[in-house]
Design goal:
single chain, 161 residues, alpha/beta, Beta Polymerase, domain 2, 5-stranded mixed β-sheet, two-stranded antiparallel sheet
Length: 161
């Protein structure tokens, strides 16, 4: 396992490019402690497992969605870092997964990162993105009487008067 405290993040980007090549879309070092990566949903579980095992990225800080109705897609965004006995390590990896807006589903990453559980539930509830394999996709924030198929963070959501 690579120790992130001593890692050169440029080397991490190069290693990921060499290992996964065409399985990764965007991969760039935004600044020394931030890496941006775009991965198709078909490859995300394999790559997430590698990130956890190789770089000790063991903690999901957040998961959210971005709605691009004009492009007919969502993007699921995971912010992943590492927690050790010394606290947070400096690297934050931003993992983006494009998702079709008409059939919004992607694999859940809860089997790799337990800390993704509530974040995936929130994203499902507010955007309607299904996380396949998530053991408990049920309401977390909205009240029980909230109408089905009404997702308040979608750009086309309208409040009823």
């Amino acid at each position: 396992m690579l120790t992130l405290q001593r890692a050169n993040n440029t080397k991490i980007v190069d290693e990921l490019k060499n290992k996964f090549g065409g399985k990764i879309g965007t991969l760039e070092l935004l600044r020394q402690q931030r890496i941006l990566m775009t991965v198709e949903k078909e490859n995300v579980v394999e790559i997430a497992q590698f990130l956890k095992e190789r770089y000790a990225l063991n903690y999901v800080v957040s998961v959210s969605g971005i709605d691009y109705p004009e492009e007919n897609k969502f993007v699921v965004v995971y912010h992943v870092s590492s927690i050790s006995e010394d606290g947070h390590l400096p690297l934050l990896l931003i993992l983006k997964i494009p998702v079709d807006r008409q059939t919004p589903h992607t694999p859940s990453l809860i089997s790799i990162w337990k800390s993704a559980e509530w974040h995936e539930r929130e994203t499902w509830e507010l955007f309607g993105i299904e996380f396949e394999g998530h053991p408990k996709l049920e309401r977390l924030l909205l009240y029980d009487e909230w109408p089905e198929n009404q997702y308040p963070l979608r750009k086309d959501f309208l409040l009823e008067e």
